[in-house]
C-alpha cells in the first residue's frame, strides 16, 4: 500500500503544479510590486477597457446566434429523419471544425474585399465605380468575426444537440401523443426542453472558445480582451496589466464553466434509465431537398470554400511551399505535440488510477483542479506561465552570477519548455476526460473479482485496467496531439525566438496577407484536424 | 354483464377460435396482423373485452404481447385487421386513427414520465385548453386518487419506483381514457411492495370501472391482477380465459408448460392402458394421442394398487416436498408431506380425473 501513498502524493503535487500558474497570475495582478503601481492598466481602465469588454461580449453573443442558426435545425434533421446520404451528411456537418476560424477569416476577407472577386464582378455587372455607389457587407467587423467563429465552432452545438435529440426515448413521444399532443406540441413541449441542457452545454463551449479567440479578432483588428492581453505584454511590456486583463477574462470563462457544469448536472436527470433511442422518420422529398440545401450551404461556407481556396493558393505556390522551412517547423510541432500528448496521457492515467484505487474526494478534486486548464484561454495561460517561469529564469541567472558563473539566459520562459508546459496544462483535461470515461465503463466488480483472486494493485492496473482502456488512451494521445498542433494564442506568446509551430507559421503569413505561402501548412493542420472526425464517425457507426 | 368469452368447458378446443359471439363490446379486435419486413409478429389476433374487465396478455418474451398492446394504441403500423373501442373504429384495413385520437391511456414499462416536468405538470399535460382552476382541480383529484398528495412539485427523478408508476397512472387517468394499456407495469417494482401495489391499483381500476389490458411474462401477476388472461405464443393467441381455467384446463401442451400446471404424461391411444394402475378413476374418452395433465399435488403415496416409481430427488419447498420420480421412461414431479428417500420405490396413484391436453 505504500506505493499508493507515493502515487497520491505525486498526483497531488502534479495537480497543484498544473494549477500553479493561475495562482501566479492572481499574485502578479494584485500583489506584485508592479501591480500596485500599474499605470498602463489605469490608463486602459479609464479609456478603452470597457470597449474591449463590450467587443468581446458582442463577439460571444454574435457567435452564439450564428452558431445556433447553423446547428439546431441540422441537428434535429440528422437525429430525426432518415434520408439518402444521411450518414455522410451527419458527419460532413462536423468538417468545418477542422478549419481554424482565422483561416476562414482570411479566405473570406480576400473574397469579399473591395478588390476581391465578388465586389469586382458586382461592380462590373451594375457599372458601379466607387464604394460610395453601393453598400456591401464589411467582413472586418464584429459581425464578420462572429460569423467566422460561428462557422468554425457551430459543430460543438450541432454534435451535442444531435446526440441529445437522438437519445430521447420514443416512449416520451408515444406518451405525449396518447395524451393528445400533436407533433408540434411534442417538439416544443417535450423534445426541445429535453435537449435544452445539451444546447446549453454546446453554447457555453462555443462562448468559451469565442471569448478565447485571438487569431480571428487580431486579423480583423478588433480590440477584445485577448488582443488587449497580447498588446499589454508585447507592445507595452506590462506583465501585470496583461495579468489583470487575464484575470478579468478568466472570470468570464470560469462563470461559463460553472454554468456548463450546472447544465451537465441537469442533464443527468434527463437521461432516462432505459436506453431507448429516437426512431427515424423517412423524410418527404420536399424535406429532403431543404435538408440537403441548408446543410450543404453551411458545409460549403465552413469547409469547402476555405479548403478549395487553400488548395488553389497551394497550386500556385507549390514549389516554393514544398521547399520552404515548413518541414522543419512541422517536425518541431509534431515532436512537441507528441511530447505533450504522452505527458498528458500519463498524467491522465495517474490521476484516474489513483482515483480508482483510492476513491476520495481529494483525488476527485485533484482531477478537477488539473482539468481547469482547458477552460483557461491560451492567451491567459501564456501570461500565467510567463510569470513563474520568468521569475525562475531571473532567479537562476542571479544565482549563477553570484557564483561567478556565466548566465545561461531564459532557459525556462525562453525555450520550448514554456510551450510544452502550456500544452500540458491546457490539454491534460482532454486526456483526462477520455481516460476517465473509459474507466467509468469498467464495472467496479471487476476490481473486486481481481482482488478476490489475490491480484495486487499494479498487476490489476497492468492486466485488467490498461487493456480495457487502451482505445481511450490512444484516442487521448491523439486528441491532445491534434489540439497542440492547432493551438494558436499560447503558441504565439510563448514560442521561443526562431521557433514556429504550424499554427504560428500559418498565422504569420495570414497576418502578413501572404497566406499563399502558408497554404501547405494550413492544409496540413486541416488534415490533422480531420483525423478525430473520421475516427469518431467510425467508432460511432460501430456502436 | 355476462362473460362473453365462451368458457372452455371442453379443454380440447382452443378458445381463441370460439370468440365470435355477437354482442356490444368495449373493445373488439378482429384478425389483427402485424409484420416487420417479412416477419409476422402478430397473426390473426382477435379478442373482445367488456367494460371494466382487466385482461392480462401473457406470454414468453418475443411472443408479440407488447406488439399487440402498441398496435391497439396505434403506436406501430399494422397490416390487416379491425380494432373498435366503444363502437368507434380505431383501425379498419388501411384506415388508422392517430394515437392521440384514440382515447387510450398507456403506461410504459419505464413509465415515460417527462423528466423535465413536475408530477403536476406531467399529470396536467393532457389538460390543455381548460381554465387553469379546472386543471388544478383535476390534478389534485387525480393525485388524491393515486395517494400522491403533496408530491405535485416533485420531479420524476425524486420519486421512488412505485411513486413513478402511480404518477404514470395518474397522468393516463387524468386524460379520462376509455381503455388503459399497461406494458409490464410491475417489472420495475421491488418484489416486497409489488403485491400491495398490485392490489391497490386493481382496487382503483375496479372502483372506477376502468377497462384495462396489461402485458406481463409472469403468471403470478396474471393471477393477482387480471380477470382474464390471454396467452400468446409466436404471435398467436393460444388461449383466453379466466386465469384459473388457463391453469387448470390448458387447451394445448404449451399452455400447461407455460402456466406450470403440472405433469404432462405423454399418452398414445394404443398404449393408453400402460399406466392403468396410476389412476384411481376412469380416464375420460379421447380420440387422439396427447398428454394427461397431472397436478403435482394430486397423488396418493403408498397406494396399495398404485404404480411403482423410483425416487430421483426430494426437495423441500415449504411445508411439503417436491419429488422427482421416474415412471417407466418419463419423469414426474409429485408432492409429498414427508421427504422421500432417494432411490427408494414408491407406489403412487392419481386421485383426480386427469385432463387431456392435445396438440392443436
Tell me the layout of helices and strands.
The complex is a heterodimer of chains A (543) and B (360).
Chain A: H1 2-30, H2 33-36, H3 39-46, H4 49-80, E1 81-82, H5 86-92, H6 101-112, H7 117-126, H8 142-166, H9 170-178, H10 183-212, H11 215-219, H12 225-234, H13 239-270, E2 281-282, H14 285-316, H15 318-322, H16 326-357, H17 361-371, H18 378-402, H19 416-440, H20 444-452, H21 457-486, H22 489-494, H23 502-511, H24 515-542
Parallel strand pairs in A: 1-2
Helix pairs in contact in A: 1-13, 1-16, 1-17, 1-18, 4-8, 4-10, 6-8, 6-14, 8-10, 9-10, 10-13, 12-13, 13-18, 14-24, 16-17, 16-19, 16-21, 18-19, 19-21, 21-24, 23-24
Chain B: E1 27-36, E2 39-49, E3 54-58, H1 65-73, E4 82-85, E5 88-92, E6 95-96, E7 104-107, H2 119-123, H3 132-145, H4 161-174, E8 179-183, H5 191-207, E9 212-216, H6 219-225, E10 228-233, E11 236-242, H7 243-248, H8 253-259, E12 263-267, E13 290-294, E14 299-301, E15 307-316, E16 321-327, E17 330-336, E18 345-350, E19 355-357
Parallel strand pairs in B: 3-9, 3-10, 7-8, 8-9
Antiparallel strand pairs in B: 1-2, 1-4, 4-5, 5-6, 10-11, 12-13, 13-19, 14-18, 15-16, 15-18, 16-17
Low-confidence stretches of chain B: 1-23
Distance between the termini of chain B: 31 Å
Q: What low-confidence regions of chain A span 5 or more consecutive residues with pLDDT below 50?
A: none
- Average pLDDT reading of chain B: 86
Strand percentage of chain A:
under 5%
Rounded mean pLDDT score of chain A:
87
Largest sheet of chain B: 6 strands, mixed
Could you state the oligomeric state of the chains shown? heterodimer
Strand order of the largest sheet of chain A: 1-2
Count of helical regions of chain B: 8
Question: What would you call the shape of chain A?
Answer: globular
Tell me which protein chains meet in the greatest interface and how many residues each side has.
Answer: A-B, 23 and 26 residues
Question: In terms of structural class, how would the helical and strand content of chain A be classed?
Answer: mainly alpha
Class from helix and strand fractions of chain B: alpha+beta
Rg calculated over all Cα atoms of chain B: 24 Å
**β-strand number of chain B:** 19
Q: Could you tell me the radius of gyration of chain A in angstroms?
A: 25 Å
Percent helix of chain B, as a range, is 10-25%
Amino acid at each position: 500500500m505504500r506505493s499508493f501513498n507515493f502515487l497520491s502524493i505525486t498526483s497531488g503535487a502534479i495537480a497543484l503544479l498544473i494549477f500553479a500558474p493561475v495562482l501566479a497570475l492572481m499574485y502578479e495582478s494584485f500583489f506584485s510590486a508592479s501591480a500596485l503601481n500599474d499605470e498602463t492598466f489605469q490608463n486602459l481602465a479609464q479609456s478603452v477597457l470597457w470597449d474591449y469588454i463590450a467587443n468581446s461580449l458582442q463577439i460571444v453573443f454574435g457567435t452564439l446566434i450564428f452558431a445556433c442558426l447553423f446547428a439546431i435545425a441540422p441537428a434535429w434533421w440528422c437525429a430525426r429523419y432518415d434520408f439518402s446520404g444521411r450518414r455522410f451528411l451527419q458527419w460532413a456537418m462536423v468538417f468545418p471544425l477542422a478549419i481554424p476560424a482565422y483561416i476562414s477569416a482570411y479566405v473570406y476577407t480576400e473574397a469579399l474585399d473591395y478588390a476581391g472577386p465578388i465586389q469586382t464582378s458586382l461592380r462590373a455587372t451594375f457599372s458601379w465605380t466607387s464604394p460610395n455607389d453601393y453598400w456591401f457587407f464589411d467582413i472586418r467587423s464584429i459581425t464578420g468575426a462572429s460569423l467566422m467563429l460561428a462557422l468554425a465552432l457551430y459543430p460543438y452545438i450541432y454534435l451535442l444537440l444531435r446526440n441529445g435529440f437522438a437519445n430521447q426515448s420514443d416512449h416520451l413521444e408515444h406518451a405525449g401523443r396518447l395524451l393528445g399532443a400533436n407533433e408540434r406540441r411534442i417538439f416544443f413541449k417535450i423534445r426541445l426542453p429535453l435537449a435544452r441542457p445539451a444546447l446549453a452545454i454546446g453554447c457555453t463551449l462555443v462562448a468559451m472558445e469565442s471569448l478565447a479567440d485571438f487569431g480571428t479578432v487580431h486579423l480583423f483588428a478588433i480590440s477584445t480582451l485577448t488582443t488587449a492581453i497580447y498588446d499589454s505584454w508585447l507592445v507595452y511590456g506590462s506583465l501585470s496589466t496583461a495579468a489583470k486583463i487575464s484575470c478579468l477574462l478568466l472570470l468570464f470563462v470560469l462563470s461559463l464553466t460553472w454554468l456548463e457544469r450546472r447544465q451537465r448536472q441537469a442533464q443527468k436527470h434527463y437521461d432516462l434509465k432505459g436506453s431507448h433511442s429516437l426512431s427515424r422518420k423517412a423524410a418527404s422529398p420536399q424535406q429532403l431537398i431543404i435538408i440537403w440545401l441548408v446543410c450543404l450551404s453551411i458545409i460549403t461556407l465552413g469547409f469547402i470554400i476555405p479548403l478549395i481556396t487553400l488548395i488553389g493558393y497551394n497550386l500556385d505556390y507549390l514549389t516554393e511551399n514544398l521547399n520552404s522551412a515548413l518541414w522543419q517547423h512541422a517536425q518541431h510541432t509534431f515532436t512537441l505535440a507528441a511530447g505533450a500528448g504522452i505527458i498528458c496521457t500519463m498524467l491522465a492515467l495517474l490521476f484516474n488510477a489513483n482515483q480508482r484505487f483510492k476513491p476520495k474526494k481529494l483525488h476527485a478534486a485533484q482531477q478537477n483542479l488539473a482539468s481547469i486548464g482547458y477552460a483557461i484561454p491560451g492567451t491567459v495561460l501564456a501570461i500565467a506561465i510567463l510569470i513563474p517561469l520568468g521569475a525562475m529564469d531571473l532567479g537562476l541567472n542571479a544565482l549563477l552570477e553570484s557564483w561567478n558563473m556565466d548566465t545561461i539566459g531564459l532557459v525556462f520562459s525562453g525555450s520550448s519548455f514554456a510551450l510544452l508546459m502550456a500544452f500540458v496544462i491546457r490539454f491534460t483535461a482532454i486526456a483526462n476526460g477520455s481516460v476517465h470515461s473509459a474507466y467509468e465503463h469498467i464495472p467496479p466488480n471487476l476490481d473486486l473479482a481481481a482482488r478476490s483472486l489475490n491480484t495486487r494493485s499494479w498487476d490489476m492496473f497492468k492486466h485488467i485496467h490498461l487493456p480495457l482502456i487502451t482505445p481511450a488512451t490512444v484516442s487521448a494521445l491523439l486528441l491532445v496531439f491534434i489540439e497542440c498542433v492547432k493551438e494558436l494564442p499560447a503558441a504565439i506568446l510563448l514560442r521561443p525566438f526562431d521557433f514556429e509551430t504550424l499554427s504560428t507559421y500559418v498565422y504569420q503569413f495570414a497576418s502578413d496577407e501572404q497566406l499563399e505561402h502558408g497554404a501547405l501548412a494550413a492544409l496540413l493542420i486541416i488534415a490533422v484536424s480531420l483525423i478525430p472526425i473520421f475516427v469518431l464517425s467510425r467508432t460511432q457507426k460501430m456502436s | 354483464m355476462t362473460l362473453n368469452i365462451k368458457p372452455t368447458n371442453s379443454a380440447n378446443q382452443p378458445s381463441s377460435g370460439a370468440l365470435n359471439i355477437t354482442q356490444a363490446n368495449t373493445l373488439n379486435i378482429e384478425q389483427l396482423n402485424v409484420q416487420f419486413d417479412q416477419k409476422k409478429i402478430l397473426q390473426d389476433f382477435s379478442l373482445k373485452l367488456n367494460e371494466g374487465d382487466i385482461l392480462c396478455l401473457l406470454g414468453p418474451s418475443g411472443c408479440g404481447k407488447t406488439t399487440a398492446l402498441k398496435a391497439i394504441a396505434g403506436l406501430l403500423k399494422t397490416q390487416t385487421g379491425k380494432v373498435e373501442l366503444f363502437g368507434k373504429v380505431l383501425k379498419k384495413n388501411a384506415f388508422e386513427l392517430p394515437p392521440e385520437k384514440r382515447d387510450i391511456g398507456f403506461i410504459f414499462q419505464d413509465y415515460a414520465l417527462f423528466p423535465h416536468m413536475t408530477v403536476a405538470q406531467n399529470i396536467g399535460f393532457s389538460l390543455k385548453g381548460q381554465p387553469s382552476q379546472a386543471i388544478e382541480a383535476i390534478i389534485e383529484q387525480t393525485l388524491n386518487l393515486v395517494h400522491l398528495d403533496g408530491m405535485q412539485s416533485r420531479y420524476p427523478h425524486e420519486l421512488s419506483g412505485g411513486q413513478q408508476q402511480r404518477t404514470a397512472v395518474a397522468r393516463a387517468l387524468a386524460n379520462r381514457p376509455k381503455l388503459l394499456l399497461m406494458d409490464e407495469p410491475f417489472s420495475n417494482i421491488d418484489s416486497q411492495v409489488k403485491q400491495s401495489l398490485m392490489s391497490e391499483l386493481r382496487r382503483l381500476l375496479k372502483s372506477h370501472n376502468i377497462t384495462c389490458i396489461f402485458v406481463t411474462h409472469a403468471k403470478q401477476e396474471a393471477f393477482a391482477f387480471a380477470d382474464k388472461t390471454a396467452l400468446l405464443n409466436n404471435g398467436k393467441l393460444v388461449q383466453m380465459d379466466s386465469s384459473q381455467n388457463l391453469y387448470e384446463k390448458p387447451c394445448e401442451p404449451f399452455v400447461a408448460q407455460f402456466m406450470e400446471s403440472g405433469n404432462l404424461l405423454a399418452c398414445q391411444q394404443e398404449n393408453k392402458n400402460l399406466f392403468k394402475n396410476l389412476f384411481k378413476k376412469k380416464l375420460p374418452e379421447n380420440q387422439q394421442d396427447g398428454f394427461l395433465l397431472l397436478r403435482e399435488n394430486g397423488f396418493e403415496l403408498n397406494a396399495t394398487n398404485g404404480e411403482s416409481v423410483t425416487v430421483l430427488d426430494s426437495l423441500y419447498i415449504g411445508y411439503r416436498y417436491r419429488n422427482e420420480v421416474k415412471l417407466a421412461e418419463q419423469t414426474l414431479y409429485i408432492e409429498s408431506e414427508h421427504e422421500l428417500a432417494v432411490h427408494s420405490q414408491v407406489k403412487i396413484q392419481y386421485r383426480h380425473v386427469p385432463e387431456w391436453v392435445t396438440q392443436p
